[in-house]
Amino acid sequence: MDLMAATEYLARSTTTTSVGLIGYIIIGGLAGWAAGKIMKGSGSGILMNIVIGVVGALVGGFLLSFFVDTAAGGWIFTFFAALLGSVILLWIVGLVRRS
């Protein structure tokens, strides 16, 4: 991968969508809660759901930025990116806890 391609990937992965900070918190809470249900979690509480969802949105947005333009996404795209990232995050945490 040359420097120009690496710079383009980095720029796409750090570009936020049009949702805004409050939107990320709301979507993060919903995505964190849904990911906990998908991964058979015992419920982490609303604050932890928001944290898991927002971090998951960053992870999911980064992973999806290699395939699609994440800056063009709205509420629904951001939710699915957050859900994807949250499920991956919870899966990794589950692996670490088992070891």
Automatic annotation (TrEMBL):
<feature type="transmembrane region" description="Helical">
    <location>
        <begin position="74"/>
        <end position="96"/>
    </location>
</feature>
<keyword id="KW-1133">Transmembrane helix</keyword>
<feature type="transmembrane region" description="Helical">
    <location>
        <begin position="46"/>
        <end position="68"/>
    </location>
</feature>
<dbReference type="InterPro" id="IPR007341">
    <property type="entry name" value="Transgly_assoc"/>
</dbReference>
<protein>
    <submittedName>
        <fullName>GlsB/YeaQ/YmgE family stress response membrane protein</fullName>
    </submittedName>
</protein>
<keyword id="KW-0472">Membrane</keyword>
<feature type="transmembrane region" description="Helical">
    <location>
        <begin position="15"/>
        <end position="34"/>
    </location>
</feature>
<dbReference type="GO" id="GO:0005886">
    <property type="term" value="C:plasma membrane"/>
</dbReference>
<keyword id="KW-0812">Transmembrane</keyword>
<keyword id="KW-1003">Cell membrane</keyword>
<comment type="similarity">
    <text>Belongs to the UPF0410 family.</text>
</comment>
<dbReference type="Pfam" id="PF04226">
    <property type="entry name" value="Transgly_assoc"/>
</dbReference>
